[in-house]
Write a structure and sequence with these properties.
single chain; mainly beta; 7-stranded mixed β-sheet
C-alpha cells in the first residue's frame, strides 16, 4: 500500500513562493513516476508537473513552466514542488500522485495513488 502525504500549502501574495512536499511510504519515490496535479473550485483536476522514475525527466504544464520545479529527495523519500512567481490563478488544491507506469504522462488516469491534497491560495 502506497501512502502520500502533502504539506507546505498556505496563503501567499502574488509573486511569492511556496514549496510543497509529498512524503511517500510503501514505495520509494525513485521507483515510481511522481506527479503533481491541482484542482481549483469549479474546475477539473489538471496536470501540473511530473518526474520520471528512472532518469528524472521533468514535465510541466505550459502554465507553470519556468516558474515551478519538481524534484525528489531519495534519502527522505519525498517529492517537492517549488513554486515561484505565484499568480492568483495558481490558487487550487494541489495533489501529489504516484504511478506504477514508467512512461512520463500528464494523464491523471495513469496515476494509481493520490495524496489528500494541500490548499494553495495566492492573493492579488
Amino acid at each position: 500500500q502506497v501512502a502520500l502525504v502533502e504539506s507546505g500549502g498556505g496563503l501567499v501574495q502574488a509573486g511569492g513562493s511556496l514549496r510543497l512536499s509529498c512524503a511517500a511510504s510503501g514505495r520509494t519515490v525513485n521507483s515510481a513516476l511522481m506527479g503533481w496535479f491541482r484542482q481549483a473550485p469549479g474546475k477539473e483536476r489538471e496536470f501540473v508537473s511530473a518526474i520520471s522514475a528512472r532518469d528524472s525527466i521533468e514535465l510541466y504544464a505550459d502554465s507553470v513552466a519556468g516558474r515551478f520545479t519538481i524534484s525528489r529527495d531519495y534519502a527522505k523519500n519525498t517529492v517537492y514542488l517549488q513554486m515561484n512567481s505565484l499568480k492568483p490563478e495558481d490558487t487550487a488544491v494541489y495533489y501529489c500522485a504516484a504511478s506504477d507506469t514508467y512512461t512520463l504522462t500528464r494523464r491523471a488516469s495513469d496515476f494509481n495513488y493520490w495524496g489528500q491534497g494541500t490548499q494553495v491560495t495566492v492573493s492579488s
